[in-house]
Task: inverse folding
């Protein structure tokens, strides 16, 4: 039986793990408020170069008036994670590449694993996306990947998530030359680590990451077994 594809969210909403571009003038104004970032590589021209930011989880004390954002610097520049928040009117949506689109930026040793992951997604009507090093290398042109990097994936899914998908990921991970990490991403932006969701016992819980916080939720509410 074919698996339905996930419906896209409205184009005027953003949530955790979405990518956005900042208006260069708003970016420059914000950067002038951060004396601690003076001279940090890449930041001065980040927005003008069209490089994106990622929507992150709000931290305690942050209100809803601005969108919480972040970006990681390349490992060669300290791998520092920069956090900020900007009003939504200064942001524009940036389309995240699919894993297949980002594959050209990955090492040759990863290609067979990427092909297997893309094929698994096709089987379930899903389009996996990269995040972590592969995503940032693909969207910035800077070097984020090394021989020790993980392949981090987002799986936009409706809930409940098929255990067949999770088992298929585990099978690919056993044969992969890198660690296969990442999250199942629900339509409201809630993220569930795929290994935790797969391995949680009956009656167990899984950490759910949302825009406004973290919560332990019953794993059974998010997964379902395929018909035999």
Result:
């Amino acid at each position: 039986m074919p698996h339905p594809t996930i419906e896209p969210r409205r184009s005027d909403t953003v949530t955790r793990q979405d990518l956005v571009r900042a208006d260069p003038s708003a970016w420059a104004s914000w950067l002038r408020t951060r004396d601690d970032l003076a001279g940090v590589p890449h930041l001065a021209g980040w927005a003008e170069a069209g490089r994106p930011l990622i929507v992150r989880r709000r931290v305690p004390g942050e209100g809803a008036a601005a969108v919480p954002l972040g970006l990681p610097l390349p490992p060669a520049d300290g791998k520092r994670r920069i956090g900020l928040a900007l009003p939504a009117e200064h942001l524009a949506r940036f389309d995240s590449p699919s894993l297949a689109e980002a594959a050209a930026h990955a090492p040759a040793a990863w290609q067979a694993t990427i092909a297997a992951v893309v094929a698994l997604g096709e089987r379930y009507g899903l389009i996996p996306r990269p995040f972590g090093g592969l995503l940032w290398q693909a969207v910035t042109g800077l070097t984020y990947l090394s021989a020790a990097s993980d392949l981090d994936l987002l799986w936009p899914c409706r809930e409940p998530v098929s255990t067949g998908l999770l088992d298929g990921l585990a099978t690919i991970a056993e044969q992969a030359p890198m660690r296969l990490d990442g999250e199942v991403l629900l339509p409201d932006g809630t993220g569930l680590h795929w290994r935790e969701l797969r391995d949680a016992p009956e009656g167990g819980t899984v950490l759910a990451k949302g825009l406004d916080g973290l919560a332990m939720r019953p794993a059974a509410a998010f997964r379902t077994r395929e018909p035999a």
User: Anything to note?
Assistant: The CA atoms of residues 27 and 33 lie 10 Å apart. Confidence is low (pLDDT under 50) at residues 1-11.
